[in-house]
Amino acid sequence: MHKIAVFSCFLVVMNGSGGIRVCYWQARSCTGNFKIVIISNITLMGVLMLVLNQQLVSDEEMTNVTMRSISVNNTGITDYPILDFDAVAIQKLSSGVRETLRQSKTKPRGGKFYEFSKRVCDVVLSGTALAVLCVPLSVVAAIIYIDDNGNPFFSQVRLTKDGKPFKMYKLRSMCMDAEARFAEVQKENQSDGLAFKSDDDPRITRIGKFIRKTSIDELPQLWNVLKGDMSIIGPRPPLPREVVLYTPEQMDRLLVKGGLSCICQTEGRSDMEFDKWVESDVEYIKTRSAGLDIKLMFKTLTAVLKRKGAK
What we know:
Elements: E1 7-14, E2 20-27, E3 33-40, E4 65-66, H1 87-102, H2 112-148, E5 153-159, E6 165-171, H3 182-185, H4 206-213, H5 221-227, E7 231-233, H6 240-243, E8 259-261, H7 263-266, H8 274-287, H9 290-306
Parallel strand pairs: 7-8
Antiparallel strand pairs: 1-2, 2-3, 3-4, 5-6
Helix pairs in contact: 2-5
């Protein structure tokens, strides 16, 4: 028996004359068979899968296409269809997310005053934290550099509100060529959804294990908060390779600005199932308030100190 899994997304393919069609695809089995139904020839309505085995798709192939680039097992995705996104691909993906979110029935709670006060709080807290942690962060960065003579900081493109791309910063916990080696380790995915998690990831360095376990590697994101890319509290910003596989419901996570922590991060982080993770993010979006944000800040500190779910 095959494990049945369903992934829904929107796909842009080029027809023989060079025109673009927007199609909806749905995978129903780990055999890799995808049924594609043409939705529209004009409007960009969802996430854009920019390549299909790096080939053009003819009109005849529109109704029944086999994609062998996605594999689903008992834990999660082990073969992401697209790993590398150039600037053009990121822009198209972002546009697709915005179009999809316009059709969302989920309405974020909180008015202009809430947004203003949240931003003020983000600036004050992140600025203060960076000033206090400047020296400790410098020490950790120096240790990382001494360990392998590589840049102690790492940046990665993530998506935030309305699919807007930005560079998210971390203290580097992996080897210098970690991104290039992802194709080798993706089959070791131990999560049950679209995010990648592996307890024995060979790319993690000696110091990396410690700073990941203690969440020290995430502290440079305070700079993202100060800049306005992120908020203190909000759904964790996902990677493009994950978003391109989101269902419209999962994409609701991108209705608000991404954050350092949210409900999931206070209740087990890596221990929470992916679907419940998404549900908790959407629940936050529907019920967010200043009181809830403050509560989650304190719960985040408790989770970090107890290393709850940290891996």
